[in-house]
Specification:
The structure is a single chain. By secondary structure, this protein is of the alpha/beta class. 52% of the residues lie in helices and 16% in strands. A 4-stranded parallel β-sheet has the order 2-1-9-10, sandwiched between helices. Strands 4-5-3-6 form a 4-stranded antiparallel β-sheet. The model has no long low-confidence stretch (mean pLDDT 94).
Length: 312
């Protein structure tokens, strides 16, 4: 049994999607549709733009989604492998949950692009630049990270944002609390804390204003039925009901990305193979979570073709 995975923020880089767009009109059509939906030549920023412009949250989120869906479209249109025939479920990391829902038919491509543009802007606007920060804790399990976050908070927000794998947890909150956490990391048995180059403290309670904006947006753009179940970030559990998923997408803005637990839940439900579309971030995480799992990444035409031959 197979899960299709969709990466989140941090997987963007200038040049993304260029090879696929040159090789496949189906990929080009995805990028063009996203450009039209946003009224912006996002594909040009992705393929030959300025790195700082691409890294802006409002650009990075729809760009990463577009790259993932272009990869899926090539697999479907050029190799005849549809998502429901190849995968038993989907999951995405943070914004990747929207990509997963788009892939499973819950949102149209244009609606997904617009929702992610709004989500990126809302998350950026929720906290003034410099007030919040995030840090990756290397060599930290969830218990050590929780103890550190509590010790560093000192009346400010310092919360676990991402439980990525057994060796990496990300914390988020007020900048001074995150700085304290980095200083205290070794005292808590954590190898080190590294401040992340992000412009806002994602997935913590400081994002509440963004959650309210997404709640309003998702009341207007409601997810439809999914072709396969989705494992949600905030529950690490299987979801099939669109109404439940809409509420979870709102909760996800301030809630923890429970990626490690999501992978373990999929494994417990019989998933043996994990296929990441449009990135090379989640497959390595899967390998660190469960060394027995088969994890692969599809980004290039060669990788897509090799996978298609393997499962044909």
């Amino acid at each position: 049994m197979t899960a299709f995975l969709f990466p989140g923020q941090g997987s963007q880089k200038v040049g993304m999607g260029r090879e696929l767009a040159e090789a496949s009109r189906h990929a080009r059509e995805v990028f063009e549709e996203v450009d039209d939906a946003l009224g912006q030549k996002l594909s040009a920023i992705m393929q030959q733009g300025d790195e700082a412009e691409l890294t802006l949250t409002a650009n990075a989120q729809p760009a990463i989604m577009a790259n993932s869906i272009a990869t899926l479209r090539v697999l479907e249109a050029e190799f005849g492998i549809s998502l429901p025939s190849a995968a038993q479920c989907v999951a995405g990391h943070s914004l990747g949950e929207y990509s997963a829902l788009c892939a499973a038919g819950a949102f149209s491509l244009a609606d997904t692009a617009r929702l992610l543009r709004l989500r990126g802007s809302a998350m950026q606007d929720a906290v003034p630049v410099g007030v919040g920060a995030m840090a990756a804790l290397l060599g930290a399990d969830i218990d050590k990270a929780a103890a550190l976050a509590e010790a560093a908070a000192a009346g400010r927000v310092c919360e676990i944002a991402n439980d990525n794998d057994p060796t990496q947890v990300v914390i988020s909150g007020h900048a001074e609390a995150i700085d304290r956490a980095i200083e205290l990391a070794k005292e808590h048995g954590i190898k080190r804390g590294i401040k992340l180059p992000v412009s806002a403290p994602f997935h913590c309670s400081l994002m509440e204003p963004a959650a309210r904006r997404m709640e309003a947006a998702l009341a207007q753009t409601v997810p439809g039925a999914f072709t396969v179940p989705l494992y949600a970030n905030v529950t690490a559990a299987r979801v099939t009901d669109p109404a439940e998923e809409r509420a979870l997408l709102v909760e996800q803005v301030t809630g923890r990305v429970r990626w490690r637990e999501s992978v373990l839940a999929m494994r417990a439900d019989g998933i043996e193979r994990f296929v990441e579309l449009g990135g090379k971030v989640l497959a390595p995480m899967v390998g660190r979570i469960d060394k027995e799992a088969d994890a692969t990444s599809l980004m290039t035409m060669d990788e897509i073709e090799a996978f298609a031959k393997e499962i044909a």
